[in-house]
Design a protein that fits this description.
- There is one protein chain.
- By secondary structure, the protein is mostly helical.
- Helix content is 53%, strand content 6%.
- It has nine helices and four strands; from the N terminus they run ααααβββαααβαα.
- The protein has a two-stranded antiparallel sheet with strand order 1-2. It has a two-stranded antiparallel ribbon with strand order 3-4.
- Helix 2 crosses helix 3 and helix 6 crosses helix 7.
- The radius of gyration is 20 Å and the shape is elongated.
Length: 178
Amino acid sequence: MSSTDAASRACQLQETGLSAADIAEISGVAVTLVRRLLRPTGQRPAVIHRATSEAILGIPLTSVFRRDRLLPGLVGADRAATYLQDLAERGWPTSFLAAQLETTTHTLAAIRAREHRRLAVSLDREIQRLAALLLASDPADHGIAEHRSRRTRTAALQRAPLVRPAGTFLQNQPGQMP
């Protein structure tokens, strides 16, 4: 049987945040075969067993959620690093963010500094959720003292050239705080 449909589904599943190991765990297919299906068209097997194809095609795209927990897949950390830097530039202290995300300040600082290339899907989604909430509000509204926000902003702006890829600096509008 042609591997095209199964390879396409494996790629879609990977885009939802599942790793090759996650797809293998759910489908019962060997992780090596899943990795082969995720290769570019000319490098993957042209034919696979029908049972293998059906196992992968049978995974719903909503499989990122299983038993009310996220699977342990990994995603690139660049988006999370950018969100964490944006939050710092707006005055959100790392200690506050760590408490909200139930993680350590060290972990968040390492992600923001781009020391981690990949991170867990669950942490990436929590950072995105928190950033969406906090970027629309002010640190003072959450009980963060002005001097802490100012200190956080200053440090973030000094660190920005070191941790941001070129061309991703915030565009400050007139009248907005830096």
